[in-house]
Amino acid sequence: MTIAKLLFLALFFFNTARAADNLPGVWELLIPDAGIASMHTAVTHFNTVVLLDRTHIGPSRKLLLKNRCRGDPAKPRPQDCTAHSVLLDLQTNNIRPLTILTDTWCSSGQFLPDGSLIQTGGDLDGFKKIRKFTPCEQGQFCDWEELQDTVLYEGRWYATNQILPDGSIIIIGGRSANTVEFYPPKKEVGAVKFPFLAEVEDDQMDNLYPYVHLLPNGKLFIFANNKAVLYDYNTNTVTKNYPILNGGPRNYPSAGSSAMLALAGDYS
């Protein structure tokens, strides 16, 4: 390596370090060990944080409350008495175990208007499950509820949930699930075919966890792989096809991210 290259690298790392020193904000360690590895994280209106992990990779480091073990006769450990979800109180930094009974690996969730968290799908015994967590104030007890009388019409793994103007939730896609459905369930509709998801599926399934944003006109912007459409969920029709985005797939498993900025005007 030449002296010029060494000098360039030295200046590069020096300037990078100086730039990092000037960035605003600092990282702060709140909890050295939360007891679980959080796969999904959601902040409630009570300033608490729900951490959620998958359930079938062995015990965690956080014990469940007494007599709240989850049974699985098919596994070498017939009972798992450790938590796979916890609640972090940001005022006290206390961690409390929550009870998840079915597998939430690569599931999806969305808040309802009342602040309750609806969590859907997953793997294995969680494939068609719907779970609900209603947050509570400090000093009160709240936990996950696995709905017994309501399940998904189609199993969902790597789906996306989006709240709608009427307060309901649309659940879109998932592995080998090129359909949409709603919560609360619409019995007269069930799971509705959504051909766009099948059209953008490729060998590595780059149509998982599609990006979904509710637009001011009430329709949904849906992006998967490298394509996007404007979707009218009331009529189950694509009303607009957007130009292909160059550069390859963006969503899972290629694993980019998406955020909607403030919009104004007509997006019909």
UniProtKB/TrEMBL annotation:
Keyword Ribosomal protein (UniProt): no
Keywords: Signal
Domain Glyoxal oxidase N-terminal, residue spans: 39-264
Annotated signal peptide: 1-19
Highest taxon listed in the record's lineage: Eukaryota
KW Transmembrane helix (keyword) present: no
InterPro entries linked: Gal_Oxase/kelch_b-propeller (IPR011043), Gal_Oxidase_central_sf (IPR037293), Glyoxal_oxidase_N (IPR009880)
Name of the protein this chain belongs to: Glyoxal oxidase N-terminal domain-containing protein
